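chain and backbone:
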Amino acid sequence: MSEKTTTPINAQPAVEVQNLATGYHGRMVLENLSLVIREGEMTALLGPNGTGKSTLLHAMTGQHRALSGSVKLFGRDVRELPAAERARLVSMVPQQIEAPMAFTVAEMVMMGRTAALNRWQAPSADDWRIVEQAMTYTDVLGLRDRIFQEMSGGERQRVVIALALAAEPRLILLDEPTAHLDMNHRLEVLELIARLNREKNVAIVMVAHDLNLAAEFFPRLILMDHGRIAADGPPETVLQPQTIEAIYHCHVDIHRDPDCGALRVFPRRTK
């Protein structure tokens, strides 16, 4: 079973969401939602499509404005933080990223240093050192001269995580980073994320659809349903049959894997 990091109870909040309400085009997506993510914590956001998981991530970065309530990053209201300062505190890893030009891996990862550079300032030797460290950590240093768009999905996601890491953030948000990967690369990316959290104490919040991998790698699960938090806690608390069946509208069997000890969720056929 993957080693999980236990967050100290006295760790300071990385994100504080208080009575948040927000939505799109006149439709409310999140309403009166509150939660706290602490420094060094590793949390998975779960729930069916359309429950507001990605909206919540974008609200945490300040990309999506709150209609009411507040979002604080490391004690400061996200609306009052300059964009460059927000970028130094938090990095976002999307499902997939497209490069408009034939950038190399090294050039892509250097984009993570943008917030640390003044306009028109060339990267310094220290910037390149940080970029090389990020590439080494994510095991893409040997691919530094490869064209990003010519790489496999798993390789590209490791490059994007290196890009996020190069910003030296205190919080990384990931929006379904394994959605388009095969199971081997899903495992590879999650092991990298867990190692990053464990060794660098970076807070992680990841939107996930794979309940089994979330249960194995994340000590805290937040299960969302129709813009609200339906359950929040360790896998044993959140992954209850009656809760999963009510939200996903299917019968499930939940067992503990005898080999790794993680919970496993299996949808049950109706016919």
